[in-house]
Design goal:
By secondary structure, the protein is of the alpha+beta class. It is built from 20 helices and nine strands. The strands form three sheets. Strands 5, 6, 7, 8 and 9 form a five-stranded antiparallel β-sheet that branches. Strands 1-2 form a two-stranded antiparallel sheet. Strands 3-4 form a two-stranded antiparallel ribbon. Helix 8 (177-197) runs antiparallel to helix 12.
């Protein structure tokens, strides 16, 4: 690292004294100066209120639709993320109480009531729910975990909050600039990384989006357009360009309003065509944070703030550099971690290695047929495992597509029979999958005893690489004929279980 030379004079002798300041110190000073520049608190107050209201509705709708009972209490077994298998549901009515606490915490965030405690409670509580069941993974749920953690770090309760009124503290007009830009970055990442993920062979040839829009002919207003020849190309390349360009367009003042209107149209279209929960509505509101603070003051009929006349409270010498270092670590993780799938060989949409937490959205459709064989080497008895006795419909539909989840399920079945019957079973899998309309092929090696295979972070060699090419016409042979078409040496009386 080079050093920067400075000169100063001795007032008594006239001697010039040379001092050296490391360039890294100058860089840190510039980063601190930028990060702690005053910024209007208005956008952060808006986002706090909006985020809390949306999360309260999200949690309430999960309780209303009986998700708590069906997904977190009734199942005997829950799929876990590697390294998080120690997380288990609360016993008894604990999960109902857990979601009630989350609802109260979300309202506390919105109202600015015991804000720090509310934000921390929601972050930890929602992350617990998110990590509890892998089969429910959705990118917007991961985004909620990240943003709730950011909200705990941002003092967005210092204006227009009940905390301010209760503790009789004067409203804070400005916050450090990093608070606003960290939120902007976190909202921008799903857009841009979602676009990068679409730069793959299948998407550029309109799959799987082409198959999906062909099934939406009955949708009101947009339905008649779905059957046109140009529709798959419009949605594929329109979605790609939108994801890659929307953030730069929102950051540029001249294109911001037009970009936001396009964003609203994009998310409303997603809401009409696809069942993706609160994500479209959340992003419509969250994207407003790219507008200047004066927009929010006008909306609330508040006078415009003169930022140049505002100052931040002084901090100790080490606080700002420490904050900047933590921010750099977090941002680096967010920018690098989504590319971890490049460390694994093969197609990530096929083997699912590195798929999660990478903003890979709407990139794959897998039609899967799966069957589990159990063999007792002591009694030499063979049989089929009745998967529906262990899993609910959501778990079954998701499990066959992810080899890691298949392996975890096999370990659960192995342990189940080991504990109840004192039997050590060998368990084999017939897993046939079709990716984005390809001809089906084996996803997992059927010759492997998966009861003896450990779950690891590295590449799984028993996952069979994708070999089938993308087809012009999607594969439409019924599932019950797959085995005969593929010439698999499997008894014909054994039917595949659909996992779609």
């Amino acid at each position: 690292m080079t050093d920067v030379m400075h000169e100063s004079g001795n007032l008594e002798t006239g001697e010039v004294i040379h001092t050296e300041t490391p360039a890294r110190a100058c860089l840190m000073n510039r980063l601190c100066s930028w990060a702690f520049r005053p910024v209007d608190i208005a956008p952060l107050v808006f986002f706090r209120i909006f985020f809390g209201v949306m999360m309260a509705y999200h949690i309430w709708s999960m309780k209303r639709d009986h998700w708590v009972q069906y997904f977190y209490i009734d199942p005997e077994f829950h799929f876990s993320y590697p390294g998080w298998s120690w997380i288990h549901p609360w016993p008894g009515d604990g999960m109902h109480l857990h979601f009630t606490v989350l609802l109260v915490a979300a309202l506390g965030i919105s109202l600015g009531l015991f804000y720090r405690l509310s934000a921390l409670t929601f972050f930890l509580g929602y992350s617990f729910v998110f990590l509890l069941e892998k089969s429910l993974y959705q990118n917007h749920c991961y985004l909620i975990c990240l943003i709730s953690g950011i909200m705990f770090c941002i003092p967005a309760h210092r204006a227009c909050s009940l905390d301010q009124l209760i503790w009789r503290r004067p409203a804070t007009q400005v916050l450090p600039q990093w608070t606003l830009w960290l939120l902007k970055l976190q909202i921008a990442i799903p857009y841009f990384y979602g676009g990068l993920a679409k730069l793959n062979y299948d998407w550029l040839f309109t799959q799987p989006i082409g198959m999906w829009i062909g099934r939406r002919a009955e949708v009101p207003v947009l339905g008649p357009l779905m059957s046109t020849d140009w529709a798959p190309w419009f949605f594929a390349y329109g979605g790609l360009l939108f994801d890659l360009l929307i953030v730069p367009a929102l950051l540029w003042r001249r294109t911001r309003l037009a970009a936001y209107l396009v964003s609203v149209g994009f998310h409303l279209t997603n809401h009409i065509l696809w069942d993706i929960g609160i994500f479209p509505w959340f992003m419509i509101g969250a994207t407003l944070i790219f507008f200047p603070p004066e927009y929010f003051r006008k909306l609330a009929h508040l006078p415009r703030l003169n930022i140049n006349a505002q100052t931040l409270s002084p901090r100790s010498r080490w606080t700002q550099p420490l904050t900047v270092c933590l921010l750099l670590l977090y941002v680096s993780w967010q920018l690098i971690f989504p590319f971890r799938h490049l460390l694994y060989p093969g197609n990530v949409s096929w083997n699912e290695e590195g798929h999660h937490f990478a903003w890979h959205m709407m990139l794959r459709e897998k039609d899967v047929g799966i069957r589990f064989y159990a063999y007792d080497p002591v009694s030499r008895q063979r049989g089929l495992i009745k998967v529906e006795e262990f899993l609910n419909s959501r778990q079954l539909s998701r499990m066959g597509k992810d080899p890691d989840m298949v392996l975890e399920f096999i370990h659960h079945v192995r342990d189940h029979y080991r504990e109840r019957r004192n039997t050590e079973l060998e368990i084999y899998v017939l897993n046939i999958a079709s990716l984005n309309g390809r001809k089906p092929q084996l996803l997992m090696d059927p010759r492997v005893n998966y009861a003896a295979i450990d779950r690891v972070w590295t590449h799984q060699p028993w996952v069979i690489p994708l070999e089938e090419p993308l087809r012009k016409e999607s594969w439409n042979v019924p599932l019950d004929r797959w085995e005969s078409v593929l010439n698999l040496d499997i008894p014909p009386e054994m039917q595949l279980v659909r996992a779609r």
